[in-house]
Amino acid sequence: YALELPSFVVDAYTKRLLSRLGIMTATRYGEMQRWFMSQLVDDVPLFNNFHACIVLLCKDFCLTKPRCEGCPLRQNCKSVN
Fold first, then answer.
1. Whole-angstrom Cα distance, residue 61 to residue 78?
2. Burial 20-54 (b: 16+ CB within 10 A, else e)
3. Does residue 47 contact residue 55 with C-beta atoms inside 8 Å?
4. What is the pTM of this model?
5. Is the pLDDT reported for residue 10 higher than 70?
6. Cβ atoms 80, 68 nearer than 8 A
7. How many CB atoms lie within 10 A of CB 58?
8. Crossing angle of the two packed helices 12-21 and 29-39, in degrees rounded to 10
9. pLDDT digits (tens, 9 = 90+) for 24-72
10. Which residue has better confidence, 68 or 3?
11. What span, in angstroms and rounded, lies between the C-alpha atoms of 74 and 80?
């Protein structure tokens, strides 16, 4: 973020979402970051917006104790309650 370099931020929200969707369960920052960056075009605003969407989704639905009802990714989630 600080230097406006195309680098995807991986945090607890990102890890939780990827794990629950069954995409990746790895806990290594670099591995998850490389996966995201291989799936998206190198673009700082895209990375920032994509991460912001993950944060919003996790704050509303994919909490530590998930609220699956109404989640827009419910159909694709491997951890639906």
1. 14
2. beeebeeeeeeebeebbeeeeeeeeeebeebbeeb
3. no
4. 0.86
5. yes
6. yes
7. 20
8. 70
9. 887 788 899 998 889 999 899 999 999 999 999 999 999 999 999 999 9
10. 68
11. 6
